[in-house]
Amino acid sequence: MSRRETSDVLVVGAGVVGAAAALAMARDGRQVTLVEAREPAPWRSDTPDLRVYAFAPDNAALLDGLGVWDAVRTARLQPYRRMTVWDAAGGDTLDFDADAFGRRELGWIVEHNLLVDRLWAALPAAGVRVVCPAQVVDLTQEEDHAVVELDSGARLRTRLALAADGGDSKLRTLAGIETFTHDYGQDGLVAFVEHERPHEGTCWQRFLPGGPIAFLPFGGDGHRSSIVWTLPQEEAARLLAADDAGFLRELQAAFAGTLGALTAVSRRASFPLRRQLAQQHVAGRVAVIGDAAHVVHPLAGQGVNLGLRDVRALRERLQGTARDLPRDPGAPAPLARWARGRRSENALAAYSFDGLNRLFSNDALLPTLLRGHALGLVGRLAPLRHAFWKRAAGL
């Protein structure tokens, strides 16, 4: 392959994080190729995606800078102004309120496939070359470039390859990057429900011995929420198989009737939960981002937020070295500095969520006696409460 055919950045995986990375690099004037196994289904307003995110302000600003956020906002976006967290074993609640932070909202609930749809729509105008459907089968690394081979036989040469192809990343494996993995033995069960009382723009989370249950406000007239219920795997399988009446009865009890009577308005689905961290974020000219670098427990809703912060930090690092390295985004020194910062940040987040899950997802006597009071203490100390929220918001 000639040097004229070498892209600056090749991104493998075109979900939210991968598509955002490709768009960001292209907006900065780099030649970008994006490889994806299958084209995403178009977003449809009449079929809400069960996979939703609690989107943080810093990442809304990132997408706004990429020219995508307005398109998301005009389609469907649910702001939330409050968060209420409490423990089923007792104690005080932990409350966050936008007014206390001088903001209109704490964040937004947004569907996965809406974000992907709008990011993909922006790729052609930015000059991103999309290769789809295609899968990576091999990787060769040289001093000044990497070559990614596809299942079609095509060989794509690039100065920097970004693995954004999920927790089971093929490119990460080919680059020789191993992971530390812990299986929680839990599943996350998701669905949409309608409820008798309005959600009032509030994210609710109740900790139970089997895992937390969250109600996330979702559009409409204020009477619909997305639920994310962490359960032992056998319990999740049982509730997936239950009829609507039986499921709603147990859901109502688990949520202590907080929003009144419930009605099922969607199918149910579940996904296995694990903590997984890449042992390194860079190997040669391959960098891992998003779920390829870190899979975390969903109790804090930070998975996609951490992935987009990988993108923002990498973009800032490469922009910072553009004067010295205008044509080589895969140069070792800036990548190494980016990798050190993100590995530390992602590990801190992953083990923090792990600790919270272990503390609250059990019925041992001592944690049960202490944890509700600990939530109340954080709630009463304004500086500590502000610090918790600012970290989650990326501010």
From TrEMBL:
<dbReference type="GO" id="GO:0071949">
    <property type="term" value="F:FAD binding"/>
</dbReference>
<keyword id="KW-0285">Flavoprotein</keyword>
<comment type="similarity">
    <text>Belongs to the UbiH/COQ6 family.</text>
</comment>
<dbReference type="InterPro" id="IPR002938">
    <property type="entry name" value="FAD-bd"/>
</dbReference>
<dbReference type="InterPro" id="IPR036188">
    <property type="entry name" value="FAD/NAD-bd_sf"/>
</dbReference>
<feature type="domain" description="FAD-binding">
    <location>
        <begin position="7"/>
        <end position="318"/>
    </location>
</feature>
<dbReference type="Pfam" id="PF01494">
    <property type="entry name" value="FAD_binding_3"/>
</dbReference>
<dbReference type="InterPro" id="IPR010971">
    <property type="entry name" value="UbiH/COQ6"/>
</dbReference>
<dbReference type="GO" id="GO:0006744">
    <property type="term" value="P:ubiquinone biosynthetic process"/>
</dbReference>
<comment type="pathway">
    <text>Cofactor biosynthesis; ubiquinone biosynthesis.</text>
</comment>
<dbReference type="GO" id="GO:0008681">
    <property type="term" value="F:2-octaprenyl-6-methoxyphenol hydroxylase activity"/>
</dbReference>
<dbReference type="InterPro" id="IPR051205">
    <property type="entry name" value="UbiH/COQ6_monooxygenase"/>
</dbReference>
<protein>
    <submittedName>
        <fullName>FAD-dependent oxidoreductase</fullName>
    </submittedName>
</protein>
<keyword id="KW-0560">Oxidoreductase</keyword>
<keyword id="KW-0503">Monooxygenase</keyword>
<dbReference type="InterPro" id="IPR018168">
    <property type="entry name" value="Ubi_Hdrlase_CS"/>
</dbReference>
<keyword id="KW-0274">FAD</keyword>
